[in-house]
Amino acid sequence: MKCAFLSVHLILLLTLLLLILGLKFTFLYYSVRLQFGLEEPVHLFVVDAFYYNSSKSFPNSTLAILFNTRKHVPTLPLTCQTRDHSGHIIKAEVQIDRLVNAPGQCEFTTFVALCPAVLDPVDLSIGVDNSPLEKVPFSMADYEPRKLVVCMSRMYLFENWQLLFTSLEIYRHFGADLMVAYVESVISDIAQIMSAYENEGFLKIKPGLRMFRHETMPYDPNSQTEWRNQLPVYNSCLYEFKESAEFIMFADWDDVFIPNNYHTTMEELIFQSRIHPSAGALVFPWKKAHVTTSENPLNFNISITFSTLKRGETQHGGKYVAIPSRVHGTWIHAASKLTRGYEQVWLAETVSSFWHLRHWTYYDEPESLFNAGKLSIGNSSELYSSFEDLLSRHNLTKIFSRLPSKSVYYPIMVNCYSAMESNTTRNTISVCPGPHHCDVPQLDIKCMNLRTEFRSRHLLNGVYVHQRFVNELYESSKGCML
């Protein structure tokens, strides 16, 4: 009898414990703790929102709202409301999913909220529980058929024009349809040449993302995202081109994909996807490479730069290509969310690879390298003609000739990042990695810098939503800014 009595009490105690644990992750629990100053307010920074009238990934007429917030945010009763031209309204609960598991040192990460919408909505609003609704601007997801889209990491303090134009021309040479650049700061003359690529439809230039520190926040949220907002823009790119691209590649500007076995990148990707039919993501080897080029734009010859590339043999992790209908979240080196039934395939070193253009040697006279060892892949003469013709077509030869001969930002950032990456590898880094840890000088040089202004709304007790109403690039004569 005594044992039975103890068993009943033990069951009741365990049940109560489970209820308390379950309550811990609810909005009610959060609200109570907030009242007593035991909880940090929730800040939702809207990154982007895309509408899908039809989709290979979601139910038809779905809106995907990407936002940044702290990774241990409580379960929010987030709702959305959409309205069409005739005034028909649908209000529904959203499905929230964390897209990236941020490292332990970082407080912020990226989420997506999926909203069932009316057909062809004209406006979207979000709220929490019974809070007032806040309108959120959105755009149509891209539906123009594309074979390969390359989503590049954000550009900041960007002055390495040799790297940029070599990367652009290599991707174009091997058959990419579109490259997407997210800009925070870049030298003005470089930006002007980038605009020529955009006018020809090969490059899409978008202002980057920079959040702000609200008065109720104990830290700058930019410093609490892994590598300072690289993942929000990667995921924004994934969701924008999810329906239009057959493949999406994620890379830094010093990563170029060079196919080993086929003439084009697409041929390589199609081959690999056919022999790995269950792949949602193809992770290729990532190896450091040596670049030989000119510091002086007057002596720059992209044919020599390309043909003398030398890849090392040591593999440093991987970089990847997504089949976008099968990937719902992206990290830097691999997919972070895959559709059930599909897998991440790590490819062997015998296939093509990403070349990490990290080691640089500079020449004074290009003639001294005409007889140097030649890369057996691709056609360096075609790259030369492609680049020179672009400068000529857009009357950019004079602007190109005045690009800087000496880099200042680039070597500082390479050394700073190398130290952080080394500490990350050894698990000795104690802070969220990013460029805010690097000492950046102020230069008297014209740069295009990101200007961002936010509109904030206090939705409910301790829950704020922040949206950019200004997000543009402007020219400054006081150098590039983080």
From TrEMBL:
Transmembrane parts of this sequence: none
Location of this chain's protein in the cell: Membrane
Superkingdom per UniProt: Eukaryota
Known EC number: 2.4.1.-
Pfam families in alphabetical order: Glyco_transf_92 (PF01697)
Record's protein name: Glycosyltransferase family 92 protein
Keywords assigned: Glycosyltransferase, Membrane, Transferase, Transmembrane, Transmembrane helix
MF terms (GO), sorted A to Z: glycosyltransferase activity
Entry similarity comment: Belongs to the glycosyltransferase 92 family.
Keyword GTP-binding: no
Keyword Cytoplasm among UniProt keywords: no
This protein's GO CC annotations: membrane
Membrane-related topology note: Single-pass membrane protein
InterPro entries per the UniProt record, alphabetical: Glyco_transf_92 (IPR008166), GTase_92 (IPR052012)
Enzyme class: transferase
